[in-house]
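tl;dr need the bound structure. longer version: we got a ligand (zinc ion) that a collaborator sent over and nobodys looked at where it sits. i said id run it. heres the input, straight from their email, havent touched it
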Amino acid sequence: MIVAVDIGGTQMRVAILDSHLNVLTRESVPTGLDSSPDDSCRLMIQMIDVNSKQIGRESILGVGISAPSVDKRIGSLIKPPNLPNWDGYSISKFVKCQLGLPVVIGNDASLAALGEHRLGAGNGVENMLYYTLSTGIGGGIIIDGRLYEGKKGFAGELGHITVEPEGRICNCGNRGCLELYASGPSIVRGVTEARKNGRATSLSCDVPVSTAAVFKASSAGGGLCSEV
Ligand SMILES: [Zn+2]
């Protein structure tokens, strides 16, 4: 069996899979932006322990970790804009030390592209682009059936290209990045701010705005949600 871990800007997820990649258990908790990476990783180890107890810890062969901004040459996170405390942190070193199991780490969007190519929407195609819209915007590239990562592992990442040269300052230090306008939190912020400024929407005022609600209202056509 294999443990799969995803460290996101909002959620940290742990799953245990069998050798056919069927998901046997899964759990997610908030990553804890104010926590130290060591504390978050200790929580991750606890989740692995609890979930693997039901299945048998001795049958786990290794751990695969996906995380944002992983420099594939050194396996550490490099200035992840949505996890500022994690700059330079080596998750694999911590997990290897705690569990004594082989650990493989990769850039989250690249691994998601690989997953979609092997088992999802891209199965059977030779070339594909994958984009994910969550706390940030990530991308991955498959060329001739193989993952193309580039020298550092960031090929296909578009979240921090500048789309508004005079726009807001991003966590990465640049100005007007795509992520500031098209990620989940930025879509919610755009609608919330416009509503505060008196724009009408079809969304209920009684519940906080969510990305899912904005997409649903947008697909119904027109209005502020489509504009954002
Ligand atoms: Zn940026």
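gonna send this back to them w/ a short note. The CA atoms of residues 33 and 216 lie 29 Å apart.
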